[in-house]
Structures are given as structure tokens and as C-alpha cells.
Amino acid sequence: MRAPTPFDLTGKRVWVAGHRGMVGSALARRLPAEGCELLTVDRDRLDLRDQRAVDGWIRDARPDAIVVAAGTVGGIEANRTRPAEFLYDNIAIASNIIRSAAETGVGKLMYLGSSCIYPRLADQPVAEDSLLTGPFEATNEWYAVAKVAGVKLCQAYRQQYGHDFIAVVPTNLYGPGDSFDLASSHVISALMRKIHTARAEGGSVEVWGTGKPRREFMYVDDAADALVFLMKTYSKPEIINIAGGEDISIAGLAALIADVVGFDGPFHFDDTKPDGMPRKSLDGSRLAELGWNPRTPLREGLVRTYRWWQNLDEEVGAGVDPEGR
Ligand code: GFB
Fold this sequence. Notes:
six-stranded parallel β-sheet; globular; 325 residues; binds guanosine-5'-diphosphate-beta-L-fucopyranose; alpha/beta; four-stranded mixed β-sheet
């Protein structure tokens, strides 16, 4: 049942669930270099929350490998205001895909966790064995519970039936394909959009929270490269962080994006909005020991992201599915 390691992707049928999302679309760019056949299905043809439909699709498409990059995702405000969707959708997506993959004998499956699965006050940078050692950050506990369930499903199916299902934990990601919808986006795309607007129209830029929290960021194409690397070389029950990006305060990030966009106006920090985790930086040493490190410096990644967003057709975020499904 368990696929051989290293797992050669050449000639394999690989389903990227969530190929319209930021990570899924980066994987769709990266995977062809492995000589594999990329399988995708749009959300209007397959609702990943529907167990029967997912099972039917997997049986018809017969993937050799699956990457679960699909999910209902969003930034701090979307997590806070849509708890039911974040919990239900993500549990359903994980359990539907993982169970059908097991029952149909899919050789390899990679599940994407999230940095918010770690305790709010975990030692920094956060090591993999911090999982479930303390309470979650309240603003994203619904998403965290669902993502931990996905991680545990991979471990359970591996333990009980011997399937080669692995779970990885990417740090905060950004880049082409990100959602720029202010109500649901993460901080980088939100600040980029607000700063771009302020440059054109004048006025100050509103930054949520105190500006003091720190986050580590990784460019999404680097993360996609790490996913492919781990897909080929990693086969263990333990989760592994995809980390090694740059750690910066939110105020520092705002200043850096302003520099990239060419804005020199003022910022206004709205401390009625939540800060979320005081600091979130993942320990990437396990991945580094395996021989993988990120390549793109934060400033360069921001420049590329800004350029990508500028080149989108009139409608901001066109072609991007902010739900990543
Ligand atoms: O990226 P973000 O929404 O999510 O926010 P988290 C990061 C930090 O940026 C928080 C601040 O301290 C925000 O208050 N921030 C400042 C802003 N201005 C803005 C803005 O205009 N928009 C946004 N969105 N933030 C997420 C989780 O936590 O991490 C997700 O909510 C997921 O579920 C993701 O796990 C990786 O880093 O706080």
C-alpha cells in the first residue's frame, strides 16, 4: 500500500485539489516540471464538501497522488466572522478527500495544514512537536480545529491502514494568486491594495491592530517547490513545517510594502481590530536538514506580487478563487 520513497512523480496522475487557490495554482505552475499529469476539477463541477461526489470523482479520475490544497481560507477577519464555514467546510473537505483516497488506494497524499494549528503562545520559532501543547489563538480556532483534524486523519489512516499520507504545515504565504478582497484577505494583499489606493487617491492607510505582531512570510512559488520536494522525499507520520521565510513586524511590513508601491504617506493603526497571534514564525530546521531552503527574499517576492496584481484584468483578483477551492 505504502508508496516507495523517494516517490517518483514522473508519469504520475496528480490531482491538485484547490488548483484555483494561491497555493494550488502555484503547484499547477510547478508540477509540470516533474513530468507528471496534472488533474484538476473546478468547483462548479465538484463540491468538495459532498462525500459522494468526491468519491465518484476520485474513482473516475484515478489519481496516483493527491495534494489537498483546497479549503475555505482567509485572513484574521474572515476567520473571526465566518466560524461555521471555516470549521465545517474544512473538516468536510479533508475527511471526504482523505477517506476516498484511502478507499481507492491512492498511493500518496499530501495534506496542507496551517501555521495557526500551533498554540497561541508556543515557543518561537514554532517546532513541529508544539502541536496540541496549548490553547489556539481565539481568532482562528475554528480553522485550526479543522486543520488539526485533517492532519490527524492523515496520521490515523497511516497508522491503521498503512497509507502513505503526509501532512505539512506551511508558514504564512503570499504571492500571485492571493485574494485581494479586503474583507477576507491576509495582511500582505490587503496592505498592498490599501497602500496602492492611498498612493493614487491620497490619505492615510489603515493598518489593523497595533502593528506590533510579528509574522514570518514565504513566497508561494517557494512553498510550491517545497511541497513537490516533500511529496517526492518525505514519508513519515510526523508533520513537517514549510518555513525558513523572513520574520517581520506588521508595522515593518507596512513600511516595506509602501516602499515597493512608492507611497510615502502616513499610516493609521486601528487597535480596535485584533492583532491575532503576537508572533508566528515556524521552525524550518527539519526541512533544512532534508536539504530544502526558500529562495525568494521578502522584498523581491513583494515586488513580483505587486507586478502580478497590477497586470490582472480590470477586476481586482480576477481569475482567483479566494476560497481556494
Ligand atoms: O494575515 P492575517 O489576516 O492573519 O493578519 P494571521 C496578520 C496580522 O496583520 C494581524 C494585521 O495582526 C492583523 O491584525 N493586519 C494589519 C491586517 N492590517 C491588516 C489588513 O488590512 N488585513 C489583514 N487581514 N490583516 C491567519 C489566520 O492569521 O493566518 C488564518 O487567520 C491562517 O486562518 C493564516 O491560518 C496563515 O496571520 O493573524
